Amino acid sequence: MLQACAGTQNRYILTTGFSRNEIFRVGRLTCTRQEMLVYLVNAAKRYDAIFQGTDPEAFAFDETGGLTETIRESTLALAGQIKAMQLLAEETGILPEAEELEKCAACAAAYYATLTEADLIALDHVSQETIRAMYEEILVATRVYEYAVRDVNPEISDDEARTITVEVLRIGKRDNPASALALAQEAQKMLEDGEDFAAVQPLYNESETERLTFGTGETEDFPEEEAFSLETGEVSGILETESSYYILRCVSAFDRQATRANKERIVRMRRNEAFGELYDAFVEGLPVQLNTGAWEALEIPDGEDLTSGFWDTYELFFGEDS
């Protein structure tokens, strides 16, 4: 699903001179109250589903900010990016095919048919035509993203994405490195005398975790290079970093499942970098204006049975399995 990429959010200039129905402008394009309500209500319902059953005080939709403000700001960033990408599409010559426009109309009709009277009230009586236009913009934004990442190689080698799992025994130096080293040597001596790592670790380990799974470049102040040189089952000697002494036991020198996930993470990161390079350069001088009064007054409608299918309907028509 399309989402605002980190580091590519628009910088809004707070201003006046808008009509009551306008929330923001990007260049010559406007986002209306109805459009923003569609995005907000559906985003809120998705968050509600994700956090259902968790501490209600931690994830409450209330007036004090918290998750509600997170939803508002992330939704504003996404909506602004979708609008800006329409202008970028014009510059790069990206246009939807006639068949795709027909699917957008069908998609809008399918979603609109699910809306109840309560939904329409919550969405300020949004029209099916507005929904169709929103789906067209999402389609175009998706095509722009695909264009931006077209040269990113999705094939990542096992060596580059290799992920390992180690058990950790860490002793912090704090203000007395000599004392910390002496403790590390005690632990090492016990291991050399035949004690299991699992028995020695809880006696000396000061780390918050007993086990770490990571790929190259994912740790800080940690003997990563030495960790990657260990074979499965091998226990290291005493390893020193700026703040600590470590003894590690390699649980897996090649975690296949974690490596596969790391490949996907690396591809996502490179695609976002490629998109950000194109997008950030384009929006650098693009005028972006926020109707502060209308935005601050716009609340996320509350209702247990309100619509949540805007994005699911789009995926049904345009997803990989469509």
What does this structure look like?
- The chain has 322 residues and is an alpha+beta fold.
- It has helices spanning 33-50, 67-92, 98-112, 117-122, 128-148, 158-161, 177-192, 197-204, 224-228, 256-283, 292-297, 310-318, and strands at residues 13-15, 22-26, 29-32, 163-172, 211-215, 239-240, 244-252, 288-291.
- The strands form two sheets. A four-stranded mixed beta sheet has the order 1-8-2-3.
- A hairpin with a 3-residue loop joins strand 6 (239-240) and strand 7 (244-252).
- Helix 3 (98-112) crosses helix 5 (128-148).
- It starts with 12 loop residues before the first strand and ends with a helix.
- Residues 51-65 have low confidence and may be disordered.
| Gross geometry | elongated
Q: Kindly, what is the distance between the CA atoms of the first and last residues, rounded to a whole number of angstroms?
A: 14 Å
Tell me what the CATH architecture of the largest domain is. Orthogonal Bundle
CATH class of the largest domain: Mainly Alpha
Instruction: Please state the structural category.
Output: alpha+beta
Question: How many domains make up the coordinates?
Answer: 2
Give the topology string: H per helix, E per strand: EEEHHHHHHEHHEHEEHEHH
The total strand number stands at 8
Query: And the CATH topology of the largest domain?
Result: Triger factor/SurA peptide-binding fold
Contiguous low-pLDDT stretches (5 residues minimum) are: 51-65
Number of helices: 12
In the sheet with the most strands, the strands line up as 1-8-2-3
| Integer average pLDDT | 89
Question: What percentage of residues falls in helices of 4 or more residues?
Answer: 40-55%
Main β sheet profile: 4 strands, mixed
**What is the CA-atom radius of gyration, in angstroms?**
26 Å
Q: Which band does the percent of strand residues land in? A: 5-15%
